[in-house]
Amino acid sequence: MPYRLLKTEHNARRGEFETVHGTVQTPAFMNVATAAAIKGGLSAFDLKDIHCQVMLCNTYHLHLRPGDKLVAEMGGLHKFTRWDGPILTDSGGFQVFSLSKLRKITEEGVTFNSHLDGHKIFMGPEESMQIQANLGSTIAMAFDECVENPAEYKYSKASCDRTVRWLKRCKAEMERLKREGLAVNPDQMLFGINQGCTYEDLRVEHMKQIAELDLDGYAIGGLAVGEPAEDMYRIISAVEPHMPKDKIRYLMGVGTPGNIIEAVSRGVDLFDCVMPSRNARHGHLNTWSGIINIKNLKYQKDEGPIDPECDCPVCRNFSRAYLRHLFKADEMLGMRLGVMHNLYFYNRLMERIRQALDEGTFQEFHDRYVTLLDTRI
């Protein structure tokens, strides 16, 4: 089994996830490199400096540009980007949600109009697996439908049933690609995705069905798409007892530091979100005392680091005053340094969560930081 559960504190889990590209210490946060690059100008080598363990890339976007077949010719994403750690590729399923005005869903798959030039693209389970096989990621996500919240119960149930059928097709296609030597990474793993909107009965039944397929890991999808945080926590708590204990659990697209701490307390191992890099590009920076807006006038002459408690490359070398100047002058360096800091903060957050779990003090860590870290100063 690639996932090893080392210890627990109530429902929170401390573990290790072994892959062909290295072992991930969990809980962990995956740094989002949508088009095989972190927005804000960070390279694979920068990711090493900020303690990143896993890079996440987007199947749909890389299929459009530069093209997954080109990436395969270049040796796959690892050689293309020079990142040698684990890479997870999403399936394109989220674009079923985010490009809702540009797509049509059938049993076979989804027809998109490209957001770049409008040309038609068809993607179903087989096509998603073929694209991800070309990308050569460590972990491929199954093709699913991410349904908007709120959604009608009848549609949500039909979507769950179709997602199970799509998952079985994904598994069969991945096995075929490996068998025929068509996968850049012959050790590529497959994660299934739990759906069901905010209906607990649909979520639980769907989780039971996909757990029977004995996949490498399981994700909870379709949350953090506009529903209240309390609904997200309620669904995680409902689904968790039915997730295999010996498989890694991934909460897709989440979230704030507080969201992550709460989800860890409910048994989640793996996270990703564009929030830390997106916020950083607008000058909103995470600290251990809350979130600051570096563009504020009060930082104009501030010689201190972004966060006195942070030892990231940015905080070790630059002042708040300099960061503010870069943002006010629209210098690209400001975004780069801001993104570097925020991603380091998230990776360090996960390190501290793991340390607290190792020491049996996670509940104290939760109580101290779950609200504080999401507070805007």
TrEMBL record:
Cofactor annotation comment: Binds 1 zinc ion per subunit.
Tree of life domain: Bacteria
InterPro entries listed in its UniProt record: ArchSynthase1/Queuine_TRR (IPR050076), TGT (IPR004803), TGT-like_sf (IPR036511), tRNA_ribo_trans-like (IPR002616)
Residue sites binding Zn(2+) per the record: C310, C312, C315, H341
Class of this enzyme: transferase
Residue span of region RNA binding: 253-259
Reaction it catalyzes: 7-aminomethyl-7-carbaguanine + guanosine(34) in tRNA = 7-aminomethyl-7-carbaguanosine(34) in tRNA + guanine
Amino acids binding substrate: D90, S91, G92, G93, F94, D144, Q195, G222
Keywords from the named record: Glycosyltransferase, Metal-binding, Queuosine biosynthesis, Transferase, tRNA processing, Zinc
EC number: 2.4.2.29
Pfam family, one: TGT
Required cofactor(s): Zn(2+)
Keyword Iron: no
Residue positions of the active site: D90, D272
MF-aspect GO terms: glycosyltransferase activity
UniProt pathway: tRNA modification; tRNA-queuosine biosynthesis
Every tRNA-guanine(15) transglycosylase-like domain range: 11-370
Sequence similarity: Belongs to the queuine tRNA-ribosyltransferase family.
Oligomeric and partner information: Homodimer. Within each dimer, one monomer is responsible for RNA recognition and catalysis, while the other monomer binds to the replacement base PreQ1.
Record's function text: Catalyzes the base-exchange of a guanine (G) residue with the queuine precursor 7-aminomethyl-7-deazaguanine (PreQ1) at position 34 (anticodon wobble position) in tRNAs with GU(N) anticodons (tRNA-Asp, -Asn, -His and -Tyr). Catalysis occurs through a double-displacement mechanism. The nucleophile active site attacks the C1' of nucleotide 34 to detach the guanine base from the RNA, forming a covalent enzyme-RNA intermediate. The proton acceptor active site deprotonates the incoming PreQ1, allowing a nucleophilic attack on the C1' of the ribose to form the product.
Record's protein name: Queuine tRNA-ribosyltransferase
Species per Swiss-Prot/TrEMBL record: Allofournierella massiliensis
